[in-house]
Amino acid sequence: MALKLRLARHGAKKRPYYRIVAADSRSPRNGRFIEIVGRYNPMLPKDSEDRVQLDVEKCKAWLEKGARPTERVARFLGAAGLWDWKHGNNPQKGKPGQKAVEREEERAEKAEARKAAEAEAKEAAAEAKKAAEEAAKAEADAPKEDAPAEEAKADEAPAEETKAEDAEEKKSEE
Questions:
Q1: pTM tops 0.90, yes or no
Q2: Are 3 and 66 in contact (CB under 8 A)?
């Protein structure tokens, strides 16, 4: 039979209170246990003496019988000097899963494509600006021809004269 020193939850909703019990590892968390070896109240301040209460002699006896503490109970036993607790190290736990890695790669590809599109847009804008500047310079440097402007003025004058003549004819008819 595999023995564990573990927590059994009691107390009200959102007001937990735990018993530290020696139990068969196959039994449920709050199910059958062999013996209560301590108590843990996480609602009390961390510096309170009543936060963790252990029956040291019972804990020693169960550890000698082969009971293995869970991670949290091992911390309590380590603080009491009954167990050599070391911080666990699982480098695989912090790594993202396959889907998360794929999503990150997609984001990186989209970001690169966006940067490339922005760079192309900037280049196109710069080329358009250069072309506009060159066109403006070419227009400014081109010799001005006064002849077409004079012809347009000459064309406009007869139109005004015809309007005046039409107005005179209407007056005379009346």
A1: no
A2: yes
